[in-house]
Amino acid sequence: MSEHRVEGNHRDREDQHDPEQASELTDVIAVATVTLVAAMAAMVMSAVVFCVGNGVLIVWVSARRVD
């Protein structure tokens, strides 16, 4: 069977919108914290992890702003 016979409903326009019509953006979430990413670029963060034993971890995190 050829490929064209398998895709018989390829030209059906039931679920397509007009190319001039704006598509509905129902699954889009607006992000307002983009400026926070720019602020984080000016910070230096370091983390040190110590494995003590018996599955115990000690974590030390330091952050400082770069001027």
Could you explain how this protein is built, in words?
Keywords: Membrane, Transmembrane, Transmembrane helix. Residues 1-24 are annotated as: Disordered. The chain crosses the membrane at residues 28-61. With 67 residues, the chain is α+β, with helices and mostly antiparallel strands. The protein has one domain (3-65). The protein is built from two helices and two strands. The chain has helices at residues 3-6, 34-40; strands spanning 43-53, 56-65. A hairpin with a 2-residue loop joins strand 1 (43-53) and strand 2 (56-65). The mean pLDDT is 63.
How confident is the prediction overall: mean pLDDT? 63
Q: Give the topology string: H per helix, E per strand.
A: HHEE
Coarse structural class = alpha+beta
Query: Major sheet: order of its strands?
Result: 1-2
* Percent strand: 25-35%
Tally of individual helices: 2
Summed up, the domain count is 1
Based on DSSP secondary structure assignment, what is the total number of beta strands?
Answer: 2
Q: Uncertain segments of ≥5 residues (pLDDT<50)?
A: none
As a whole number of angstroms, the C-alpha radius of gyration is 27 Å
Helix content: 10-25%
Biggest sheet features: 2 strands, antiparallel
